[in-house]
Specification:
The chain is of the alpha+beta class. The chain has one domain (about 1-30, about 40-115). It contains 2 helices and 5 strands, in the order αβββββα. It has helices at about 1-25, 105-115; strands spanning about 45-50, 60-70, 75-80, 85-95, 95-100. The protein has a 5-stranded antiparallel beta sheet with strand order 1-2-3-4-5, sandwiched between helices. A hairpin with a 4-residue loop joins strand 3 and strand 4 (about 85-95). The longest helix has 26 residues, at about 1-25. The protein is globular. The N and C termini lie far apart (about 40 Å).
Length: about 120
């Protein structure tokens, strides 16, 4: 039974990483404009914040990943990993804040990391 739980956590994590890869691949604009500046459309800022939301786990297996454009608008993916379950949430971000939704302090930290880089 424990093997299947670990397999489920692995598959959920792999699926989330693959989803993030597809989003980055679709919206990242690697071409430069003629003025040698990056286009204002597409993904330009990414921030990752890892943390441990549960006291009974010893490592930082949970994370929040923010994917933003030049106007600090985009999405934030949050994955909460526990020994018995994995939860994945997606929230929209507008101008660096939750778009009509409350963000956790970890999600806000991921946004701050993305904006600073």
């Amino acid at each position: 039974m424990t093997f299947f739980l670990y397999l489920l956590v692995f598959l959920n994590s792999f699926g989330l990483l693959y989803l993030a890869y597809l989003i980055l691949k679709k919206y990242r604009n690697p071409t430069l404009e003629t003025s040698s500046s990056i286009s204002s459309s597409g993904i330009q800022k990414v921030g990752l914040y890892r943390y441990n939301p549960f006291d009974d786990l010893g490592t930082d297996q949970s994370f929040s990943l923010s994917i933003l454009d030049s106007t600090n608008t985009g999405i934030i993916l949050t994955s909460l990993h526990h020994r018995n379950f994995t939860r994945i949430y997606a929230k929209s971000v507008k101008n660096g804040e939750g778009d009509n939704i409350t963000l956790s302090k970890e999600e806000k930290s991921a946004i701050v990391k993305a904006i600073k880089h």
